[in-house]
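Hey,
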Amino acid sequence: MSDGNPFFNYLFNSYNNDNSYNNDNSYNNDGYRFQNDWNAEQHYRYNDQQYSYGNGEGSGYGDGSNTGNYEETENTQDNENTQENEENYEDPGEENVDYGDNFVFNHPFNTFEEAFDRCDEVAYGLGFHLVKAKYHMEKSPPYKIVKCDRHGPYNSKAKDPLKPQRKSKTKKFMCPFSLRMIKKGEGVWVVVPKCGVHNHKFGKFLEGHKRRAKFTEEQKELIKQYRQSHVKPGMVRHAFTLRYPDQPPPILKQIYNENARLSAKDKDGRNSVQYMLHLANRANYISESVKHPETKKLTHVWFTHPESVKMFKAWPNVILIDSTYKTNKYGLILVQCVGVTPVGKSFLIGYTLIENEGKEGYKWVLRRLESLLEPGVRPTVIVTDHERGLIAALPDVFRTSHHFLCLFHVYTSIEARATNMERNGNFGKALAHGAWKKVVEAKTFDECTMEWNELRKKYCCHPALISYLELTWWHKIHMFGKCFTNLVLHFGNTTTSRVESAHAQLKMWLGSAELTLDSIWKRADVMLHGQHIEIRKTLEDSISKTVVTNMYYGNIFSMLSGRVSATAIEAIFP
């Protein structure tokens, strides 16, 4: 391929012989580029402009003067073709073509970094990147070698090449392209092409390249702020596109890598559990954890925000407890305990991660709740779903509190069981929201008993269904029937909808089911901070704003403004 062609003879000689820098047909020691007959009219394009040089003696920088004969020309047709090629994503950069002329400059550079950055900008415009390869600062004159990022062979890091290794990829392609950057004097650097040929085609898209993947200190600080606000990497990339429109947007992997670097720096050698407890202690949380005595594995951990403790002590009347799943990579169950403010807003008393939902696990959770209250103070109502472990643990801790079962779960359970028994969805819906609803909403116990007897007569031909209702729900009617619950001050809380909403809000902040424990704590802390701001706002509004009641009642409640919450007055006269 190289026979008879001085261009290829020069190429392969210079690539195989590192001393070819002084060859007669390439460059002299002063950094001049001599022209041969075969490349008398070389053209190159950069930044939509075409440059050419003819058969002058030489070009470059040497002895303080520019001896090259450069002429800037415009080629409208060529620019239009270039734009069309970019729009059609045609293959850029042919292999075995000399691109060294693109790196011949008619001026020196003050520093090596300035020279390198300028050359890398030219390379980026062509479709490749440069890397710093070798330094020879001890020679005279001193110089540094810069090469294509695809130079050299692939170096496997496998300790035993005979063992099966993970599949890997490499960009190394033994590319011969290289530049010399010679230090001519203090503050004088000259770029001299050594080999201008690539043995590969250039990249079409350079997003994510390691040279373009480097963030500036300003960008790193911006990513740090986004990370503290738990902005997803996809949104961070979009923010970078808006903030830096002239720069290629980062790929997601770059943002993930920067987040991982920041995380490792923050943890300072701690594991996930240690870092989570460290963060909680630093934020003055009330926390407690339990590890398995043998395996030392975390089995229980509890967190309460200091602001939530004040709220719980002020408003301990109603507690809603429920669990949820798929919040962490360890399979721990998340249990949230929610209270209610006088203005009807929910607040998170505390949350816990437990290994299982047995009686002892829930008993440990309830003990943590009890420790937050003043001695002798007990909640009036505790609302839960039909979780057996929690139901069994409640009498051992809060014996004097009224336990309500979530009315929504009662209806859905009965509808599902009846539908499954009769294989008829309309049948289950008619039972749950018809005859059974009359039993639940009866205002007196006598009326409730009468409705129950009517239901038994109506569905007497379904003995299995009647048996299920009697054994599972009828003997618990005092936990959800209105003739019983209306005797207790529960402020309208007869379902666990508030804690279900708390689950949804927390999972929105978590954004993943595979988080580490420290990530859960940090995101929950941000959520709680916002929740407390909203609660303080509603409390202030309730005190400072006057309630405008029905004209029929006139100003009989004017003396209560600022002393009784607007929610309480509106509950009396809606």
